[in-house]
């Protein structure tokens, strides 16, 4: 078959009704498309069948995870994703709801003879075979009530129980899997991921005004980095809870190695099962995205009941842009299938409203959107620098999932499609006292 790339470029332009924003290098070695554009390598005709059978983000993602789509090199991934974003979204989510996915919108035009003809040619180019099975890394079908305790355990296991060695490689020694806090570097020095994560942990502790002897509950404690920092640097007694057995095993080992077993307890426990309040402070860092809209008020009520009057909550959570019609919100197909099953994002305004409905007084909100983009780019760099080892530690497909997910997420934060917010809330005392200083941003005076 001669010059597959030129045929692909022409067919794609006919289907989309617009010039192709990337250059294609096909499995036969041919190239087509804009000469200066980033290169999308179509390694196997099977990629076309995946996209035709599942137009939109999931079809493209399956082909990527299987290695049937690729870039020319690590440096081109961000630009390639930026260009391909136009194929995913015809309208920005901020402007209109529901945001229509570009490739999927082809389904609305299937009666157009030109569209049908181009689709048939593309199908012939992909090979007349049944739709390929999804890559093994795609989650199996979920059973049970959405956001029930059993189903949540399965969703958390899918994401976090992929090997602590793999996460060490990606996250670095800090083992913090949430947005870092990138402070200006001192003259002559370069900011590091480790320094930025340490700064974030300390920022959380300062916002919570932790003091020696207080009780801290860390909901979704991960590998224990925050509870260890709080116990070591602030002298608190900390309880960290997670649904991941692998995380708990790793965190307990770290606690023992630092000689903090008298101050730090790690539990495999659902936040809905905690009954040993009150706590002086509660942190929830990158966990609330797993809660779900229908459970969020219960989540807020539970944390409020576990906090003593005058205690503080620090809720650190990814938020999406609001839609004109919130009922049109759909969970991202790729993220749901390969990364965070059952995860949901809400606009920060909704989160603030539900926390206040539960009785909290929201006292401060800080956006760290640009900080998360920097963090994700650092994680991608770690993964790319040791990709072969990452693939051996998990699987080739899983390593490709994480590379795609983190790079795409970095761009989403940079382009303001999603954000990350630290919300500081208090359970005021009976007399209305909040316990916060008059200048809430001066956390050293807290």
Which structural category do the helix and sheet elements fall into?
alpha/beta
The largest beta-sheet arranges its strands as 7-6-5-8-9-11-10
Strand content: 5-15%
The arrangement of helices and strands along the chain is HEEEHHEHHHHHEHEHEEHEHHEHHHE
- Quote the average pLDDT: 88
Morphology call: elongated
Which regions have little confidence, pLDDT < 50, spanning 5+ residues?
89-108
Mind telling me the C-alpha Rg?
A: 24 Å
**What is the number of strand segments?**
11
Largest sheet: 7 strands, mixed
How helical, in percent, are the residues?
40-55%
Separation, N- and C-terminal Cα atoms? 71 Å
Total DSSP helices:
16
Map the helices and strands.
Blueprint: H1 4-16, E1 23-25, E2 31-32, E3 39-42, H2 46-53, H3 57-65, E4 69-71, H4 77-88, H5 113-126, H6 149-160, H7 164-171, H8 193-207, E5 215-219, H9 225-234, E6 237-242, H10 245-257, E7 264-268, E8 279-285, H11 296-306, E9 307-320, H12 333-339, H13 348-357, E10 361-367, H14 369-385, H15 387-393, H16 396-414, E11 418-426
